[in-house]
Amino acid sequence: MTDQRTTTRDDAGWIEQALERHESALVAYAARITGDVDTARDVVQETYLKLCHARREAVEPQLAEWLFTVCRHAAIDLRRKLGRAGANEGFDMAEIEGSAEIETREEGARALQLLARLPGSQREVLRLRFEGGLTYKEIARVTHQSIGNVGWLIHMGLKSLRAQLAGDAVEGTVQ
Amino acid sequence: MVAKWDFDADDARLSAYALGELEEAEREEVEALLARNPEARAFVQGLRDTVAALEKGFSAQSSPGLTDAQRTSILATTARPVRRVWPRYAAAAGLAVSAAAGAAAWMWNRDTSKELALGAEKRASYADVARARKSSLRDLEGLGYTGSSGYAAANKPATLKAEMEPAQNPAATLAPDVVYVGRVGATPGLSVVDSDRLADDPNVPRLEAADDFTSEAYAPIVENPFRRTRDEPRSTFSVDVDTASYANVRRFLVAGQLPPPGAVRIEELVNYFRYDYAAPEGSVPFSVTTDTSACPWNPSHVLMRIGLQGRTVAQHERNASNLVFLVDVSGSMDSPDKLPLVVSSLQMLARELDARDRIAVVVYAGASGLVLDSTSIRARSAVLDALERLQAGGSTNGGEGIRLAYEVARRNLVPGGTNRVILCTDGDFNVGVTSQDELLALIEEQRKSGVFLTVLGFGTGNLKDSTMEMLADKGNGNYAYVDGVREARKVLVEELGGTLEVIAKDVKLQIELNPAEVQAWRLVGYENRVLAHQDFADDAKDAGEIGAGHTVTALYELVPVGVPFEAPESGELRYREPAGESPAAFTGEVAFLQLRYKEPEDSESRLLSHPIVRATGEASVDSRFASAVAMFAMKLRGSPHVAEVAWADIERLASGSLGRDERGYRVEFLDLIRRASELQR
After folding, report:
1. Fewest 10 Å CB contacts: which of A27, A30, B79, B371?
2. Cβ distance B491 to B456 under 8 Å?
3. ipTM surpasses cut 0.85
């Protein structure tokens, strides 16, 4: 149960829980911005180090949003410093893994493969939603756009994935 | 016939529905559509299958996490000794609170154990975690927490005094703040926060409580997000000259605690200090100063400052005043930092007044009463004596006291003069008018008589910050927190003119950002003062007052065009074309400021306007200091925008911009930065 006398151990504990919950999603997310996993790892490590120095009681109620916001800032910043392509459009790097064009019958893998071909803006919100577990509202705040716009991008993404998964090539073109 | 909603495969609500993101009303609309339209049903089923496929894909995907070395280095950072700040949420809580806390703890542990059980070989998949997170939210909602977003999960249950003694004090359970604790909706007829502006945000009306300050109540603040200029070119808000939050934050820090995040209102911290704005000229009661400089917490961004300076009124030019001191003498006020401080503060004020002025004293406790009918200050010693004799005891009938005080003020109304009720309390209004709505309605009604309100907050342990701020907001008033004699002197002597004498009322600002110069913007602070754009020109809509000599400062963080910014293009919006710019967009202006205000006696507003151009050159001393204060506040609030900023950076910026600082307030601020940095290690 929540002991009132929280100790040092619990302070480490909440960071550990924050790692358990979000670390992999953050690395995968950052990698789509920086273009490679190693840089993404540095970004995420940096993000968690900042978390260690933030006010727990202020950050905890908005933990996911906080982590993705800080991580996104750092990733875009780093990409700019490294002078990589797409420095001006948030989420526009090619997908990393899964970019191997092996057709697969397995539905889940196929969905990810199709996801990789969507426009960057749709891909980003879908990843934040399904990989990061964020709500529309949190995604809106992390990506600095309106909730309506987030809803629209998610819908367009899901709609084209749906059409393609159903093998409906006619409707399946990205709008 | 009501037009029925037709199936449209491009309607984003269908995905939002499949993902459980819709509010009840829209959800019902979609369900009705699905019930009558098989095509829509098939389409939504397809979306659900797609969602399932994505979840499956993500959960099967092996994703690289951090390396073990990286993880270890992070955890090593947390292993240093940490001073806990205000951990004991559940300590003094009653049944309802413990139940909520227990459930929250259970959910947390459950998720963790699930993940731990999977251990090193196989970490829980993202989708699992995401789902677990969602279901935890539902668990919490089942307990009566409203709100559908992720904030609910970690929101701490509040511990409020009234919860601890429901039996002795049935009315206490109706105290407005208590509604937030685990039982929203359980008590019919009670609604929580009046404000239309807050109503659309499910996160706002939940209170947080502060540790040792067991029954203090603060409304959480959700920081204003960045907005893209093309989506949202305007920003509209009401001025706020309150300074209570600064004194309250200082009280926490001096007592060796970090303040709860909801106690930190950025604009009130910034406005606590005087800035050297030009004096107003001509008939307009205040001057407007704007400048821009590099944003200190993000140098590629621009910080835009808007400053208003109210006309000062010399002591001999001051209007005759009719003041009613309304003093809470309930049992909770019986503490050295409360009633005795109230008495010495009001005596300090009475000594500043002169033969033109009148004072009455009304108290409220179990019953309210007129202690001293309106008396000319010529009989100053009678006033001082009446104050001296005040004693604490009894429970609080705030509503009755407010009614009586306004009645006395109206009876002695000085036309064209200063007519004001000065309420001194720790904020408990638990007998009589009980719901916050009723109390606010009462204040709004009384406001129409032309009587203004000053709320002075006192004491620790029971402070109802949120109630008092709202009272002042609704009652054409200002709100200060008095944490000692020094603060009383600042509010009631040094800034007496500003506290008593209104020079402009219903002051609203509307800033239009220029999309050719600014790609995104964020208003720093003023979260609970944001207005709907259409209310700007609506003179029936209330807004903040400016007192004589008051300064008001607002800061905007702007992202200039050309700076990499991670907001996606909204060219994919269905109904909107990228808007063309008018010729004014290419004048180099970053923004256009419009301001509406009313003269104190008027009911029609006047309009001022002022283009803002981007300045070049160094930031002024005041601008640097104001931004240091804003950073300090954001850091206390855990804002992600200052995640990179260290306390030492803030201290450096502030100590390099002390200016003249005649009264030493800025130096005192340096001390608060040091205290905060020591507490948050």
Report:
1. B79
2. yes
3. no
